[in-house]
Design a protein that fits this description.
Strand order of the largest sheet of chain A: 8-7-6-9-13
Radius of gyration of chain A: 23 Å
Pfam families (chains A, B): ROK (PF00480)
InterPro entries (chains A, B): ATPase_NBD, ROK, WH-like_DNA-bd_sf, WH_DNA-bd_sf
Number of helices of chain A: 16
Oligomer: homodimer
CATH topology of the largest domain in chain A: Nucleotidyltransferase, domain 5
Family (chains A, B): Belongs to the ROK (NagC/XylR) family.
Protein name (chains A, B): ROK family protein
Shape of chain A: globular
Structural class of chain A: alpha+beta
Largest sheet of chain A: 5 strands, mixed
Helix content of chain A: 40-55%
Largest interface: A-B, 49 and 49 residues
Organism (chains A, B): Nocardioides anomalus
């Protein structure tokens, strides 16, 4: 506890750390920035900006750039800063129901290295060991002294906001699993680790640097084995009381339909999820993991996919009525289907959505391709760095050997 | 445009007006407040608070109160302020599909006078004339020099946020109606007027001074002829891109069901709206306006309402999965039904909602009874007063005769 008389000094220090973080976030979002842009964007004077840049340089987070963007005035290039080569990085984990993709991601959202594997056993400790192995792989070649800020994990299920507990990952059959601790135990290192729902992270990444930059109201729909949504409204993530908002795979859709793992009949997920798609095109259940490749192989939509497209559109109409978004990003298999059966999807939306809500919405492919969720996990792991860079870098792991200790 | 050198002064003036508004909002929310509470709550020193209070007194918005709340220290009563008798007021209009309720509402959310009528013709100009008549009636006895700050109107339909245009009021058969201008024309006076969706206003009022004070994530469900929701998430209203979010009456519910006015089959509204309730209990269509009295007349639920209760619960389960609220306020006829068929409603929620979302949600009756929406309209009309009291009072109508000019 600071003594009361230190109040002002403490405040100034907090403001300085806040400004350092804001500047670093700005550079991270764009990859680079000119000093003129920073001065204008942050509303601070040139000497304050210079001081902040100098401190971030000394922390190894940014470096000097001779020319940034275009030129200014009489053709003189604008000097500025860019994210540091060998600067801070994070590890992002996209956990699926039968595979994990792990990447080392640098500032600016650059994937520096990636590893992927299909796993056999799906017990949490088994998957934790698989993920730890992939993490070791992607950090092995990271430069020495390049700080590992944290690990971010996307989860195909419900994640408690307060502590990252996985309350339910239905297609892994996990209930109340503290997967973050399991991965840290398998790694044998102490590094900040955070978890969130996959669709929420997809929404975050597409909003930050994808198909919905500058869009205040958007839905990222994740169409995989499970179907979920990440919702951003008024520029803020829709979290709900516990962090579980967006479970739109369990909207009642066809009460006479198939049983869902949640215990109800005919949830939207049972009609448009990966298994329903596989059924429609007679892809055997064991090949569902390859469904992406199967769908990519079609030049033209087989007739059987049309009904799925219509059901996707009809469900999206309910979401559009409920959330009135500007953009719906079609993540997971919905992206491939939006290429194949676009007319059916658009038709379902047009039929089901109220005109006032339908007229202003655009359906879009994810601009980050298959990496929306992975890059969202990276953004989440970077977050503490933009809140307080000196503290986050103080906690970061610098020693390359320590990172692969386990 | 202020000259550049006036920058600091202009800023100080803006801060002062902001502080005046914040203090006034504080007193409005509680009806009264001690100076000690204000000093603590606003983080300003005693002399600044005294100056703000003096200015609000001179504006006629608050007045001195000798004793406020309990006592402090050695039994000495805490002096403070309360909302002024004969202070600023608003007119709130709750527009239904066949009737309008209009009230004069004072600061502190006190209904000072109320008038209500069932209307015959439902053309916008006819309804506008009816509403204008009721407005005249409730302001006729307002004290001279008591300022009319504005009129707030709740609408059973979709209201464009940018300008208050009613895009669609399905049960009035209105499309793109500028009802605010129509009412002003019928009144013949120029006063700030604002419009919003009824369920959104119900949510606002229950959050401000009802069943969900201090709750960050709540849904106010309005079960009337139409069914809609007002959603507050993370303490902010969920508006969507155009202001149309919350149209959950058109969630796909029973695709083999009855046709809805929106063109689809089996929207939730067709299964749980007033007409469905009336059908279930064999109340003839022309008596739907009295449905509230009919429901209130049951000591025990007739068997026919049980299926409706279950359908309400099943639909709420979809909302709970989508929004993960802490509280669902049962507005409109849903309140009466929650008294009659609570087990069926709770059962539908328990069956349909994911446990992580269901375990933390409470269904509640509106604490403001039938007045949630009306008081929400009043809060909306007061809003400019809490943003900038001197400006809002400068625009207000003081002259009692001018208020009933038309």
């Amino acid at each position: 506890m600071a003594p009361p008389r230190a109040g002002l000094g403490t405040n100034q220090e907090a403001v300085r750390r806040h400004n350092l973080g804001t500047l670093l976030r700005h550079v991270h979002q764009r990859g680079q920035s000119s000093r003129a842009e920073l001065t204008k964007g942050m509303g601070l004077n040139r000497s304050t900006i210079a001081g902040l840049v100098a401190e971030l340089e000394s922390l190894g987070a940014v470096e000097h750039a001779d020319t940034v963007g275009g030129t200014r005035g009489a053709g003189r290039p604008s000097v500025g800063v860019r994210v540091a080569r060998n600067g801070p990085f994070v590890v992002a984990v996209d956990l699926g129901v039968d595979r994990a993709v792990v990447a080392r991601v640098g500032m600016g959202g650059t994937v520096l290295e990636r590893a992927e594997t299909v796993f056999e056993g799906s017990e949490a400790w088994q998957v934790g060991a698989v993920v730890a192995g992939l993490v070791r792989k992607v950090v092995a070649d990271a430069p020495d002294l390049s700080p590992l800020v944290g690990i971010g994990i996307s989860v195909p299920g419900l994640v408690r906001r307060s502590d990252g507990l996985i309350r339910l990952a239905p297609n892994l059959d996990w209930h109340d699993v503290s997967f973050g601790s399991i991965v840290l135990a398998a790694l044998g290192v102490d590094v900040p680790i955070s978890l969130a729902n996959d669709a929420d992270l997809g929404a975050m990444a597409e909003h930050e640097r994808g198909a919905a930059v500058g869009v205040g109201d958007l839905i990222y729909v994740s169409g995989n084995v499970g179907v979920g949504a990440g919702v951003i409204t008024g520029g803020q993530r829709l979290e709900g009381a516990g962090g579980y908002a967006g479970e739109i795979g369990h909207l009642r859709f066809n009460p006479g339909g198939k049983p869902c793992h949640c215990g109800n009949l005919g949830c939207w997920e049972t009609e448009v999820g990966a298994h329903a798609i596989a059924d429609a095109i007679r892809c055997p259940p064991e090949r569902v993991p390859e469904l992406g490749a199967v769908l990519a192989g079609y030049a033209k939509a087989p007739r059987e996919l049309r009904a799925i497209g219509q059901a996707i559109g009809q469900g999206l109409a309910s979401l559009i009525n409920a959330f009135n978004p500007q953009v719906v990003v079609m993540g997971g298999y919905f992206g491939a289907l939006y290429s194949l059966v676009r007319d059916e999807i658009d038709g379902g939306v047009a039929d089901g959505a109220l005109p006032a809500a339908a007229e202003s919405v655009t359906l879009a492919h994810p601009a980050l391709g298959d990496d929306s969720v992975l890059l969202g996990a990276a953004e989440m792991a970077f977050e503490p760095l933009f809140v307080d860079p000196p503290s986050a870098l103080g906690r970061a792991i610098l020693d390359a050997r320590a990172r692969v200790a386990g």
